[in-house]
Amino acid sequence: MSGDIVFFDLPGKDAEATAKFWQSLFGWEFKEGNFPGYSMIHGPSPMGGFPHGDTSKFPRVYFGVDDLDAATERIRELGGTAGETVTIPSGKFANCVDDQGVEFSIFQAAGA
Questions:
Q1: Is residue 24 classed as helix, strand or coil in its secondary structure?
Q2: pLDDT in tens, 7-44
Q3: What domains does the chain contain, in order, with CATH numbers?
Q4: Which of 44, 92, 98, 99 is deepest in the core (most CB within 10 A)?
C-alpha cells in the first residue's frame, strides 16, 4: 500500500462560484467530467475533481492502494469503516472513515 495522495474532491454547493474562486486563486481549469454534475480540475498535482452541489465542508483526499479489497479489509480490522467499492473508468475506490471519525477515500488505479 503506497498511501500517496492520488486525487482529491473539492466540495462546492455553487458550481460556478466554486470554479471561479479556485480558478482565480490558483489558475486551475475546470473541465467537464465523466458524468453529469462532475468536473475535473486540471492544474494541481495530483489532479482533482469537483462534484457539483457537494455541501461538504472539507476536501476529500484519495490515497492510492495496490489492492482495494485488502485495504478495505485492513481498515475494518483497525476499527474504521469502508463503504462499497465504486468502479469508474480510471479504477475503483471506496469512501472510508478511520477509527476517530475522519473521512477519506482509497483508490486503486485500473490495471493495478
A1: helix
A2: 999 999 999 999 999 999 999 999 988 788 999 999 99
A3: 5-109 (3.10.180.10)
A4: 92
